[in-house]
């Protein structure tokens, strides 16, 4: 049985250990206004009260996401820096414009999390911090993340937790109610939700990962997503070829 109090304290010690092993001095993470980043931010603040930093990076985003990110930063007293990536994103789309016109759809939207990761690593380098990922096990198994975007980072404290366990952990950490009750969303466009994109609920994904009963059609859909996204969970493939005698 998952015990958020015990696991939360273990994660705080784990974060401190990983930073010490790396020779770095603290943690930086993106604060999106969602529950996953809120939980990681609260853990980072507990692990490094004086050397943790949250970056709020709107990029043509829902204004509520920014408001919730600011709410979280105030609530846990997390130093936060706001970087508006909207103009950079617009300029980048213009630079990519070709015969087919300005990029649109998911291939364009995926630029947003990649711009955010660039920004995180810039500040991590300046501060000598580790970039802290916010993905959970339910997202990782389905591939519901952007390769080299929100999947980037140096450490991933929530990677073993399914979504319902993240919620329990966030409740233990005292995350504000508006964030706890907010429908999960990658925030790539207006009205987007995680479950709407995936066509399956987090409840079903959590059940799949924990070996619990679920509908066969849900199981098949999740297995298909897991297979299609396998390349996202590994380093780039290296040729397994015989080069002959050297």
Q: Could you give me the name of the CATH homologous superfamily?
A: HUPs
Q: Class in CATH? A: Alpha Beta
Distance between the termini: 54 Å
Q: Sheet with the most strands?
A: 4 strands, parallel
Q: What is the N-to-C succession of helices and strands?
A: HEHEHEHHHEHHHHHH
The assigned CATH architecture is 3-Layer(aba) Sandwich
And the CATH topology? Rossmann fold
Low-pLDDT segments: none
Put simply, the count of helices is 12
Number of domains: 1
- Across the major sheet, the strand order is 3-2-1-4
Provide the residue-averaged pLDDT. Answer: 94
- Percent helix: 40-55%
Instruction: Categorize the overall geometry.
Output: globular
What would you report as the Rg, rounded to the nearest angstrom? 19 Å
Number of strands: 4
Structure summary:
This protein is of the alpha/beta class.
Can you describe what's shown?
With 246 residues, the chain is α/β, with parallel strands linked by helices. The protein has a single domain, classed as Rossmann fold (3-Layer(aba) Sandwich). The chain is built from twelve helices and four strands; from the N terminus they run αβαβαβαααβαααααα. A four-stranded parallel beta sheet has the order 3-2-1-4, with helices on both faces. Helix 3 links the parallel strand 2 and strand 3. Helix 1 crosses helix 2, helix 2 packs parallel to helix 3 and helix 2 crosses helix 8. The longest helix is centred in the first third of the chain and has 19 residues. The radius of gyration is 19 Å and the shape is globular. The protein starts with a helix and ends in an 18-residue tail after the last helix. The relative contact order is 0.15. The model has no long low-confidence stretch (mean pLDDT 94).
